[in-house]
Amino acid sequence: MVLRLVKLLRELKLCRGIRVTLIQRVYLHEDKEFIRDVVHFGQAVAALPISGDDIILVKQFRAPINEWVLEIPAGRVEVGESLEDAVKRELVEEIGYIPRKVMKLVSVYMAPGYSDEVLHIYVATDLEYVGSEPEPGELIEVIRLKVGEALDTLMRSEVVDVKTIAAISTYLRLRNDLT
Could you give the CA distance from residue 113 to residue 77 in angstroms, rounded to a whole number? Predict the structure, then answer.
C-alpha cells in the first residue's frame, strides 16, 4: 500500500472555548477534497504519584460525562511552561504534593480521530506534602491505594479513564527499570 500525499488546503476556526478551539480543516487527497473537524487542545501532562507502596489518585467530577472519575492528576501545559513544571504544578493543585523526582513514562495521543491533544505521562516520586491549591470548579477527592490494588480497583469500574490505566500499566511493566 502506497500512502499518497494529503494536502491541507485551508482551516476555519469555528469557535473558541475556555480550553479548546474547534477548527474545520479542508484537505486534498488524490484530487478529492474532504473535511475534518479538529478539537485543538495542545499539550497536557499527567502524573502517577507514588508514595511508598501507595498510588495517589483523585476522584474528580468531570462535566462532559456528568460523573465522578477515578484518575491520576492531570492538566494542560501552560504557555511557556516546561512539561516537568506542569507536572509539579498539577500535583500541588490537585493532591497537595510536590515531587522531588519526575520521570517520563510515555507520550500518547488522547483521541487522534478528532483532537490534537498530546498527553505526556510521568511517574512522580519522593513526594513532599505542601497543601493543595485546586482551581475554581475543580471538585476533587484524594484517594490512596496500594500499587497492587489500584489496577484491580479501576477494572471494577464500568468505564475507566484511559490515562490512568495507561500510566499504571506502563509503571508496573517498567518499575524495575525506573529505580
Answer: 21
pTM (whole model) above 0.85: yes
Domain that holds residue 23: 7-40
Q: Summarize pLDDT for 131-160 with one digit per residue, the tens.
A: 988 888 889 999 999 988 988 888 888 888
- In a shared domain, residues 31 and 114: no
Does 7 score more than 70 pLDDT? yes
Spell out the SS3 assignment of the chain: CCCCCEEEEEEEEEEECCCCEEEEEEEEECCEEEEEEEEECCEEEEEEEEECCEEEEEEEEECCCCEEEEECCEEECCCCCCHHHHHHHHHHHHHCEEEEEEEEEEEEECCCCCECCEEEEEEEEEEEECCCCCCCCCCEEEEEEEHHHHHHHHHCCCCCCHHHHHHHHHHHHHHHHHC
Give a yes or no: residue 26 inside a domain: yes
For 148, the grid coordinates are 497492587
